[in-house]
Specification:
Layout: E1 5-11, H1 18-31, E2 35-40, H2 55-65, E3 72-74, H3 77-81, H4 87-97, E4 102-108, H5 121-127, E5 129-134, H6 140-154, E6 158-162, H7 170-179, H8 183-186, H9 189-197
Parallel strand pairs: 1-2, 1-4, 2-3, 4-5, 5-6
Helix pairs in contact: 2-9, 4-5
Protein backbone atom coordinates (compact mmCIF):
# COMPACT_ATOMS: atom_id res chain seq x y z
CA UNK A 1 0.00 0.00 0.00
CA UNK A 2 1.29 3.47 -0.90
CA UNK A 3 2.02 5.76 2.00
CA UNK A 4 -0.53 8.42 2.84
CA UNK A 5 0.00 12.13 3.32
CA UNK A 6 -1.71 12.97 6.60
CA UNK A 7 -2.33 16.52 7.74
CA UNK A 8 -2.45 17.25 11.46
CA UNK A 9 -4.41 20.25 12.72
CA UNK A 10 -4.20 20.64 16.46
CA UNK A 11 -5.64 23.30 18.70
CA UNK A 12 -8.00 24.14 21.50
CA UNK A 13 -10.94 24.48 19.07
CA UNK A 14 -12.85 26.57 21.60
CA UNK A 15 -15.01 26.19 19.60
CA UNK A 16 -14.11 25.06 16.09
CA UNK A 17 -14.99 27.77 13.58
CA UNK A 18 -15.05 28.17 9.83
CA UNK A 19 -11.53 29.56 9.83
CA UNK A 20 -10.21 26.20 11.08
CA UNK A 21 -12.10 24.33 8.37
CA UNK A 22 -10.91 26.71 5.64
CA UNK A 23 -7.34 26.31 6.88
CA UNK A 24 -7.64 22.52 6.68
CA UNK A 25 -9.12 22.68 3.17
CA UNK A 26 -6.38 25.02 1.94
CA UNK A 27 -3.65 22.85 3.46
CA UNK A 28 -5.16 19.70 1.96
CA UNK A 29 -5.21 21.27 -1.50
CA UNK A 30 -1.75 22.81 -1.20
CA UNK A 31 0.01 19.58 -0.20
CA UNK A 32 -2.37 17.11 -1.86
CA UNK A 33 -3.11 15.54 1.52
CA UNK A 34 -5.05 12.29 1.70
CA UNK A 35 -6.45 13.01 5.13
CA UNK A 36 -6.57 15.77 7.75
CA UNK A 37 -6.86 14.83 11.41
CA UNK A 38 -8.21 17.47 13.80
CA UNK A 39 -6.83 16.97 17.31
CA UNK A 40 -8.45 19.00 20.10
CA UNK A 41 -6.13 19.59 23.02
CA UNK A 42 -6.95 18.36 26.48
CA UNK A 43 -5.38 21.26 28.38
CA UNK A 44 -3.39 23.88 26.51
CA UNK A 45 -0.56 24.96 28.78
CA UNK A 46 -0.48 28.31 26.96
CA UNK A 47 -4.12 29.29 27.58
CA UNK A 48 -6.31 30.35 30.49
CA UNK A 49 -8.64 27.43 31.21
CA UNK A 50 -11.47 29.45 32.77
CA UNK A 51 -13.26 30.18 29.50
CA UNK A 52 -12.54 26.92 27.66
CA UNK A 53 -15.34 24.48 26.92
CA UNK A 54 -14.99 20.94 28.32
CA UNK A 55 -12.67 18.75 26.26
CA UNK A 56 -15.25 16.29 24.96
CA UNK A 57 -17.68 19.09 24.12
CA UNK A 58 -14.98 20.60 21.91
CA UNK A 59 -14.28 17.15 20.44
CA UNK A 60 -17.98 16.55 19.67
CA UNK A 61 -18.30 19.98 18.05
CA UNK A 62 -15.33 19.26 15.80
CA UNK A 63 -16.81 15.88 14.89
CA UNK A 64 -20.19 17.39 14.05
CA UNK A 65 -18.63 20.22 12.04
CA UNK A 66 -16.50 18.09 9.71
CA UNK A 67 -18.83 15.15 9.07
CA UNK A 68 -19.57 16.35 5.53
CA UNK A 69 -15.86 16.30 4.63
CA UNK A 70 -14.86 12.67 3.89
CA UNK A 71 -11.10 13.38 4.12
CA UNK A 72 -11.42 15.00 7.55
CA UNK A 73 -11.46 13.12 10.85
CA UNK A 74 -11.08 13.96 14.53
CA UNK A 75 -8.97 12.24 17.18
CA UNK A 76 -9.37 12.41 20.95
CA UNK A 77 -5.80 11.19 21.54
CA UNK A 78 -4.73 14.28 23.48
CA UNK A 79 -7.88 14.20 25.60
CA UNK A 80 -7.38 10.51 26.39
CA UNK A 81 -3.74 11.15 27.25
CA UNK A 82 -4.86 13.67 29.86
CA UNK A 83 -2.92 16.48 31.46
CA UNK A 84 -1.36 19.29 29.46
CA UNK A 85 -1.13 18.71 25.72
CA UNK A 86 2.26 18.91 24.05
CA UNK A 87 2.67 18.71 20.28
CA UNK A 88 5.88 16.69 20.39
CA UNK A 89 4.11 13.90 22.30
CA UNK A 90 1.30 13.90 19.76
CA UNK A 91 3.70 13.75 16.82
CA UNK A 92 5.52 10.80 18.40
CA UNK A 93 2.23 8.98 18.99
CA UNK A 94 1.09 9.62 15.42
CA UNK A 95 4.36 8.30 14.05
CA UNK A 96 3.72 5.10 16.01
CA UNK A 97 0.17 4.92 14.62
CA UNK A 98 1.15 5.71 11.02
CA UNK A 99 4.74 4.49 10.64
CA UNK A 100 4.55 4.20 6.85
CA UNK A 101 2.81 7.51 6.21
CA UNK A 102 4.01 11.12 6.02
CA UNK A 103 2.83 13.62 8.62
CA UNK A 104 2.17 17.27 7.78
CA UNK A 105 1.70 19.57 10.76
CA UNK A 106 -0.55 22.50 9.82
CA UNK A 107 0.05 25.91 11.43
CA UNK A 108 -0.41 29.58 10.75
CA UNK A 109 2.75 31.24 9.47
CA UNK A 110 3.03 33.40 12.59
CA UNK A 111 3.47 30.20 14.59
CA UNK A 112 6.80 29.62 12.81
CA UNK A 113 8.29 32.40 14.93
CA UNK A 114 7.46 30.68 18.23
CA UNK A 115 7.80 26.95 17.53
CA UNK A 116 11.41 26.75 18.68
CA UNK A 117 10.19 27.75 22.16
CA UNK A 118 7.77 24.82 22.34
CA UNK A 119 8.58 21.67 24.29
CA UNK A 120 11.10 19.59 22.28
CA UNK A 121 10.72 21.35 18.92
CA UNK A 122 13.37 19.04 17.46
CA UNK A 123 10.96 16.11 17.75
CA UNK A 124 8.33 18.02 15.79
CA UNK A 125 10.68 19.19 13.04
CA UNK A 126 12.38 15.82 12.65
CA UNK A 127 9.16 13.81 12.44
CA UNK A 128 6.72 16.00 10.51
CA UNK A 129 6.69 18.30 7.53
CA UNK A 130 5.41 21.76 8.47
CA UNK A 131 2.66 23.35 6.38
CA UNK A 132 2.42 27.04 7.25
CA UNK A 133 -0.47 29.17 6.06
CA UNK A 134 0.62 32.68 5.13
CA UNK A 135 -1.63 35.66 4.55
CA UNK A 136 -0.80 37.95 1.67
CA UNK A 137 -0.04 40.81 4.08
CA UNK A 138 2.39 38.78 6.20
CA UNK A 139 6.04 39.89 6.49
CA UNK A 140 7.48 37.42 3.97
CA UNK A 141 11.12 38.47 4.33
CA UNK A 142 11.10 37.93 8.09
CA UNK A 143 9.26 34.65 7.61
CA UNK A 144 11.77 33.36 5.09
CA UNK A 145 14.65 34.32 7.37
CA UNK A 146 13.05 32.39 10.24
CA UNK A 147 12.44 29.37 8.05
CA UNK A 148 16.08 29.36 6.97
CA UNK A 149 17.13 29.53 10.63
CA UNK A 150 14.91 26.55 11.54
CA UNK A 151 16.20 24.54 8.59
CA UNK A 152 19.79 25.20 9.67
CA UNK A 153 19.12 24.50 13.34
CA UNK A 154 16.67 21.61 13.22
CA UNK A 155 16.71 20.31 9.65
CA UNK A 156 13.10 21.46 9.41
CA UNK A 157 11.01 20.83 6.29
CA UNK A 158 8.67 23.83 5.96
CA UNK A 159 6.29 24.64 3.12
CA UNK A 160 4.37 27.91 2.92
CA UNK A 161 0.94 28.02 1.34
CA UNK A 162 -1.25 31.04 0.74
CA UNK A 163 -4.56 31.68 2.44
CA UNK A 164 -6.77 34.65 3.18
CA UNK A 165 -6.89 36.23 6.61
CA UNK A 166 -9.14 33.84 8.53
CA UNK A 167 -8.61 35.11 12.07
CA UNK A 168 -11.77 34.57 14.08
CA UNK A 169 -11.61 35.47 17.76
CA UNK A 170 -13.66 34.29 20.71
CA UNK A 171 -14.80 37.89 21.13
CA UNK A 172 -16.13 37.96 17.56
CA UNK A 173 -18.02 34.73 18.18
CA UNK A 174 -19.50 35.94 21.48
CA UNK A 175 -20.58 39.25 19.92
CA UNK A 176 -22.22 37.49 16.98
CA UNK A 177 -24.13 35.12 19.25
CA UNK A 178 -25.10 37.87 21.70
CA UNK A 179 -26.41 40.13 18.94
CA UNK A 180 -27.92 37.23 16.98
CA UNK A 181 -26.25 38.13 13.69
CA UNK A 182 -23.44 36.88 11.45
CA UNK A 183 -22.81 33.74 13.51
CA UNK A 184 -23.38 31.59 10.43
CA UNK A 185 -20.44 33.37 8.73
CA UNK A 186 -18.14 32.37 11.58
CA UNK A 187 -19.33 29.01 12.84
CA UNK A 188 -20.57 25.66 11.53
CA UNK A 189 -24.25 25.01 12.21
CA UNK A 190 -23.47 22.31 14.79
CA UNK A 191 -21.52 24.83 16.86
CA UNK A 192 -24.13 27.58 16.57
CA UNK A 193 -26.83 25.24 17.81
CA UNK A 194 -24.78 23.99 20.73
CA UNK A 195 -23.74 27.47 21.89
CA UNK A 196 -27.30 28.76 21.65
CA UNK A 197 -28.55 25.80 23.66
CA UNK A 198 -25.77 26.12 26.27
CA UNK A 199 -25.05 29.83 26.17
CA UNK A 200 -24.09 29.85 29.86
CA UNK A 201 -21.15 27.53 29.06
CA UNK A 202 -19.40 29.92 26.71
Amino acid sequence: MASLKIGILGGTFNPIHKGHITLAKRAKAAADLDRVIFIPSNISYMKDQSEILPAYVRYDLVKGSIESEPAFMVSDMEIRRGGESYTFETIRALNDLYPDDMLYFIVGADTIFSMEKWQHPEVIFQNAHILAASRKDFESDALQEKITELIDRFGADITIFSTENIDISSTMIRDALRNDHNAEELLPEAVIQYLKDHHHAY
